[in-house]
Amino acid sequence: MFSGQDKEGLRPLYTQVATDAMHYSKDEYDRPKCHPETCKAIIEEIIDWAENDNINNPFMWVNGPVGSGKSTIARTIAELLANDPKYTGLFAASFFFRRTAPGRNNPSRLVATIAYQLTKNVPKLKRRIAVALTKEPFIFTLSYEEQMAKLVAGPLMDANNRSRMSLLPNFEALLDLIAGLLLQLIYHPSIVEYGNERHRRLVIIDGLDECGGVEDQIKVLQIFVKAVKTVNFPLFFLIASRRELGIQMFFNEDRMNLISRRLALDNEQYRRDEDIESFLISEFRNIKTNHPSASSIHHDWPGQPKIKLLIQKASGQFLYANTVMTFIKSPKARPMAQLELILGQGHSTKHTPFTAMDELYIRIFESAFGSDSSDICARALEILSFLILRGNGSILEIGDVEHYFNYEEGDVQICLNDLHSIINVPLPGGSIIEQPPSSALHIYHTSLRDFLLDKKRAKRFFIDAVHCHISLAKRCIDHISCSFNPKLRTENSAIQFLQDHVAFDAVFDSVNQPPMIDLPAIVKWAEGNETFQFFWLYGSVSTERSIVARSVTQMLQSRGVIAATFSFSKSDPTRKDASQLIATIAYQFCRVIPAVKSAVAAWIANDPCIFSRSLPAQLEALVIHPLSAAIQSAALADEESTPSHLVVLDSLDECEHKDLVLELLSVMVQGAKLPYIKFLIVSGREIDIQNTFNEAIVGPCSERFSLDDQIYRNLKNQAQEVLYQRVLDTVRQYSALNAIYDPGHLDGQRYTHGTQTQVLERILGWAGGRDMQYPIFWMYGPPGSGKSTIMAQVAATLIEQDKLAASHFFSRIDFGTAFVPTICYQLARNITAFRAPLAAAIEKDPAVFSKSVRAQFEALIAKPLVQLSDKGSLLGKIIMIDAVDECGNSEAQLEILSIIVSACQSPDFPLSFLVSGRPEYALMSFFNREAANSITLHYNLNTDAQEVDRDIEMYLRSRFEDIRQNHPAISSSLTNWPSDSVIELLVRKASGQFIYASSVMKFIENARQNPVDQLDRILGLKSQGNEAPLASLDALYSHLLLSVHDWESVAPVFKFLLRNFQAPKPSTLSDAATSLNLELEEMQAILSDLHSIMYVPPANQPDEEIRLYHASFADFLRDQSRAGPFYIDMED
Questions:
Q1: Looking at residue 167, what is its pLDDT?
Q2: 1069 in a domain, yes or no?
């Protein structure tokens, strides 16, 4: 019991606790938590880690830019684990750092606060912590490491050790145990073992970046890392912070890679925009119900367009969304007027909607620069002005900025070193943290732009847009004027000012492919001296006009026509109007015609405000005039060699202000004196476009072609086929083609007819629909049991039955990065209907192949398959995955399996999976979990030893028959060679291993040796000389043992097993532990990497036999010439 003396002993602890840093404190409890409809995927991933992966990865770093919801998620997780009965015993403590709160802005009260919460959540620690305080009364003057060791680690380890030593718990402890087990059975039936992972508890640390300086932050992490290195240390840690440089570099260290998981909140897979939309809709619904002025609010308010605009402004920033809704729902104002203020459409009032945002940004800048007005601060604002005002240009590298401002290499990173929470600043040498795009320099949130451009909000950090535009324009002109200096960077920097106004997404992708279609009328018009300056290609949406436009452009480019393209899109802010049209066209001509580039540069130098002028003025200055100058120059004087110049305007009907573009057509007609510019207009049949092409000015200068005509129907299939071929070629580049099934996968282990019939019948029966409730078939067996041979035979059969959708045969050098493209490539080849949604997915996100395996699977396989109209035709088709245990490390293996299980849990996913592998601990644990087990059919190849022996005997007899028939050194008289007793001996030596039998037969059938002598060498009747008959088997065993982390601890266990290998009484786990003076748990830990070659009973079944699966492994360990460094000397 906890005595009054013990309570008095804890009194010094109470004075050191930061009471408002705990999640249930008044300060934290009233702060926002995740809305019930948001952050579901994130919370599920964290809970899954906390329940299932906290031993291998005792750290999870939840990271993201400012305002991304890190604290909200940490707060939600803390309350969920602390209060939900089904997570009883999982929560230990929490600490929420705050830069502005004394006692919470440094580590001084961290250990005491954790220790205090442990006394509440783990009552048996009260006395132990009180004793520790009594023994060391000045403990809070010691280092943080000493505090952690004496107040947290020491009491925890003492409690755990005493629990293990106590075989018969006292009555009170027994009642506690029974009550705990009853709670677990009621709330979490899957957890019934006493002493399992549930006794590991989570510590949540939020806002680590707000803890003192970098040294304090790293010190906190080092304290925790040192603690988890202690054997059986029962705490694990969730760390939430911004991606500050020091914290990033700490988690990027090799040692942290091995023991931590990362969760980047700005990763696209978490769909933060959808979460923000759910939050906004819910908040607006509450306003319309509960606000004092609710009766005057229309039921449709605010409308989807305004919600979408708020989502766009939030840029994934929950802080922005929460700040906005707090302002709008103020009871002292009308919500509709407040919303108009937010959107910049209302009249200013004394209310300031972004006070919280402004304070946050000011605090970040003050922390970075303080009162400093030096060159570093000025340069940082100069760089920010460039990032904010440059428009929607190409990806911006750090080197581009340093060149643009004439900085020294590394200056940008120095200037922005303390702004990682609001700006993506790539680390030197790259970072494993996901920061899309990883190498680009950009601000995270549009709210920062609004803040910096508002003098009242940004104060001394204000960026004067007009002044900066002038400064940047002058610098651009300086670059343009020397753009042909070979010592300088070329186009990307030389005409940066022009590039800043280019809509790059509007430019057709350049491809080196044969022409997609052949339209003679367009070829004749584009290449000839036709009087028609315009060609109008029109049709309904179903005609896939953009595909045709791209095909036509590609075809003409292949014939020497110089084309500039612009594809309008009402869903893209940079392409929904014509504001960037002329700059985009001019930029493309600049890239391929040096004389045009020179003329454009000169014009911009004379008129830096050109992009503020009308579209006709821009067209005249940046397209017509430069091309005229280029044609008249000496380089293009010869008309015979002058190429045609084409401007392609695609999807004109999607332009919001197409009236401005149509007005341009009249200006273009005036440029008809320029015979080498022609315009291909692609659109629908909108009446205003039709009227323009029918009017007196444009009509006589135009030709037209309807895509709805019969001729297009004849061309469409050809165009799509070439497009799909391009998609296949793209996916092929990222695929591991050698992982796809082909007969070579048998690699000499050819299938012998009549063998392995039981497993083949079971798999093919499942594939035929016998067990439709199980979309996953998991076949496992020890090394050498013939898994890959079986998989290859199944693949051959499924191909004959037209049921093989795709396959991936893993090897030891395959880390799984090409898994999704490899499967995707085969699906596109084998399933015609899959190609269209796949092409759309790649076009929507060309960078998808650089994303995580899960994001690739979702975008390239799951969504396209679900979109198919005839999914029923795919039922029964199989994706095969062989040797999943050889894929990279266990983390990569489990990620792929987790993706497969998630897909199969969806009723809309039409395919099934056949997976094979060794019975590694991590894999078996995964498939035994409820989520996987409920949809998986398990098959153990090692269950029927007699069946396997019969198959091996049949295999050996078949191969010996081949040798007798075909080997040149065998006499026809040897009809009875080898004898039945020899075959029986080989079967016994194989111990169920097909790889042993295969290795033996490869050695015997060597065409340069006598098979009889080779067999005698196998049997030990003749010297083997320099030959290695079991080289492939030895390589397999060596590979398995190389993965063992502590060979010196494993070797004595093997020596014990070898001594008792053929003993009449089998050795139990308890026998081995007693003989080696080890605890049962220690034995299991030592042998955790060897489950594929030996049977290790659970710790709660110590009287079960511990054994090697194969006699050949015992032979290997005893033979120094074969085992090498793994040789077990039985004489020692």
A1: 39
A2: yes
